[in-house]
Amino acid sequence: MASSASVGASARVDLDGNPIKPLTICMIGAGGFIGSHLCEKLMSETQHKVLALDVYNDKIKHLLEPDNLPWHGRITFHRLNIKHDSRLEGLIKMSDLTINLAAICTPADYNTRPLDTIYSNFIDALPVVKYCSENNKRLIHFSTCEVYGKTIGSFLPKDSPLRQDPAYYVLKEDESPCIFGSIEKQRWSYACAKQLIERLIYAEGAENGMEFTIVRPFNWIGPRMDFIPGVDGPSEGVPRVLACFSNNLLRGQPLKLVDGGQSQRTFVYIKDAIEAVTLMIENPARANGHIFNVGNPNNEVTVRQLAEMMIKVYSKVSGEQPPETPTIDVSSKEFYGEGYDDSDKRIPDMTTINRQLGWNPKTSLWDLLESTLTYQHRTYAEAIKKVIAKPVAS
Ligand SMILES: NC(=O)c1ccc[n+]([C@@H]2O[C@H](COP(=O)([O-])OP(=O)(O)OC[C@H]3O[C@@H](n4cnc5c(N)ncnc54)[C@H](O)[C@@H]3O)[C@@H](O)[C@H]2O)c1
Ligand SMILES: O=c1ccn([C@@H]2O[C@H](COP(=O)(O)OP(=O)(O)O[C@H]3OC[C@](O)(CO)[C@H]3O)[C@@H](O)[C@H]2O)c(=O)[nH]1
């Protein structure tokens, strides 16, 4: 298979050896974690143009300023909220491809702000799908591994040998069912909204011929993920686990293990995952009409093991001793509130992405944590010291 790696802008070819034509990409949610890495990659290694849409741009400021950056003129920021902005259709019309990343996607919101979560992940995405379909524009939509919900194996007795059989837990795009909890478990508001928008996009493809690709990310992690509470986000905010544990480590506090940290996750390095998205962008004939799991099945840990590894890695990169009490158990009700529930295990099947795009992740969990926690320490350690030293107003 020919490589689509950068060998000088004009010589870049797709996986079938055809020259890659520069595209104009309307990227919605470009100011977030994934968007910022995708913009970085597209600017530094390709000739594509990006119309970057978001309500915030802090994470892509370094790509927008100063004016003498090598990609000057290829990325423009449009501050807008897709809930209510008449510029959206025009920007989609001006582009060859739309990538929709915009979402509320932090689990602490799913059970506490279910209406916002459903609106953000379903209702707000509707016009994007409609404008792409009506204007014959290609869409890459970001869904989630959460659409699989719980594994079939989780319903078997604890001591059943079938729990060890991959048929009962590996998650396959075209075979696995979507298994959510009951309605009062509002955790599933996000997964359910994502599932319905996937079904709508799929139906637009089937009935109206819309060109689409659906991405199901499996816990992509790396620098710039979420925020550190009290530094660049609200003090009471609860980000995703990487930022929660980073915050605990930076403050020398025990890491909180929800319900004992028994849930399992596979983590993939953001830079590996962005390679997969770039392949989708540049190989439409191979990516259109497909749903892709994007994860790293070799990086599976329980949340407890993740915490233990992060404690070791942080100690190495910061030179600081681990906290005296490294971890504490908290109930999910105490940590997330009523209506929380969890995915037990998430192993992506890689057959489709291997076959269509020849993609495989490269980075081990230890290595990705080492580069990410080096970034967290360099970016936040001084700011945290100042926050801790500040007297609390009485
Ligand atoms: N990071 C992961 O591991 C992961 C896993 C599963 C799914 N996803 C999906 O990938 C996408 C991107 O995730 P992320 O981790 O970069 O999240 P993020 O929160 O960092 O980025 C989302 C961005 O969308 C923007 N946005 C939200 N609503 C908007 C609106 N109405 N108008 C304009 N901009 C809006 C936000 O300001 C934010 O910058 C989401 O759809 C998420 O559900 C991510
Ligand atoms: O301080 C903490 C924070 C979290 N946990 C537990 O860690 C597990 C993973 O949590 P998190 O990364 O926050 O989120 P999920 O993996 O559950 O869900 C995400 O997956 C993909 C995505 O769609 C978008 O990123 C999102 O929904 C979990 O078991 C928490 O309970 C902890 O122990 N301590």
Automatic annotation (TrEMBL):
Membrane spanning stretches: none
Cofactor: NAD(+)
PANTHER family in the cross-refs: BIFUNCTIONAL POLYMYXIN RESISTANCE PROTEIN ARNA (PTHR43245), UDP-D-APIOSE_UDP-D-XYLOSE SYNTHASE 2 (PTHR43245:SF13)
Coiled coil: none
Main location: cytoplasm
Catalysed transformations (reactions): UDP-alpha-D-glucuronate + H(+) = UDP-alpha-D-apiose + CO2; UDP-alpha-D-glucuronate + H(+) = UDP-alpha-D-xylose + CO2
Upper classification of the organism: Eukaryota, Viridiplantae, Streptophyta, Embryophyta, Tracheophyta
InterPro entries: Arna-like_SDR_e, Epimerase_deHydtase, Lipid_A_modif_metabolic_enz, NAD(P)-bd_dom_sf
CDD domains: Arna_like_SDR_e (cd05257)
Protein name (Swiss-Prot/TrEMBL): UDP-glucuronate decarboxylase
Cellular location(s): Cytoplasm
Keywords attached to this entry: Cell wall biogenesis/degradation, Cytoplasm, Lyase, NAD
Gene Ontology biological process terms from the UniProt entry: cell wall organization; UDP-D-apiose biosynthetic process
UniProt source species: Arachis hypogaea (Peanut)
UniProt keyword Cell inner membrane present: no
Alphabetized GO MF terms: identical protein binding; protein heterodimerization activity; UDP-D-apiose synthase activity; UDP-glucuronate decarboxylase activity
Keyword Lyase attributed: yes
Record domain NAD-dependent epimerase/dehydratase: where: 25-295
